[in-house]
Design brief:
Number of helices: 4
Keywords: 2Fe-2S, Electron transport, Iron, Iron-sulfur, Metal-binding, Transport
Oligomer: single chain
Helix content: 40-55%
InterPro entries: BFD-associated_ferredoxin, BFD-like_2Fe2S-bd_dom, BFD-like_2Fe2S-bd_dom_sf
Largest sheet: 2 strands, antiparallel
Strand content: 5-15%
Structural class: mainly alpha
Radius of gyration: 20 Å
Strand order of the largest sheet: 1-2
Family: Belongs to the Bfd family.
CATH superfamily: BFD-like [2Fe-2S]-binding domain
Number of strands: 2
Cofactor: [2Fe-2S] cluster
Number of domains: 1
Pfam family, one: Fer2_BFD
CATH architecture: Orthogonal Bundle
């Protein structure tokens, strides 16, 4: 399950990083860039890291159902807005300028 939608980071990637010695959100931010875009994932990732710390490495830890996951489920159900009624005007030419 994705814990960080902005950087497409899964619970498996975070578990693997934990097994390699990552222990803090800062470590994960350096490694994966989590928390840099919107920051909605930070609390869920912190909970997942805490769960990894208390559980043995061989047992699976269930990632928390977050607002990010709930939001992605809602956005999948949402419809796209209608296209504009009047299309953009066609241009005779486009110019590129080297600066």
């Amino acid at each position: 399950m994705y814990l960080c939608m902005c950087k497409s980071i899964t619970d498996q990637q975070i578990r693997q990083a934990f097994e390699q010695g990552v222990r803090t959100i800062g470590d994960l931010s350096v490694r994966f860039g989590v928390g840099i875009e919107c920051g909605k994932c930070l609390e869920d990732i912190r909970q997942f890291l805490d769960a990894c710390a208390v559980s043995p490495a061989s047992s699976a830890v269930t990632p928390p159902l977050s607002a990010v996951a709930a939001h992605s489920a809602q956005s999948a159900e949402a419809t796209l807005p209608a296209p504009p009624e009047k299309p953009a005007p066609e241009r005779a030419a486009w110019f590129a300028v080297d600066l």
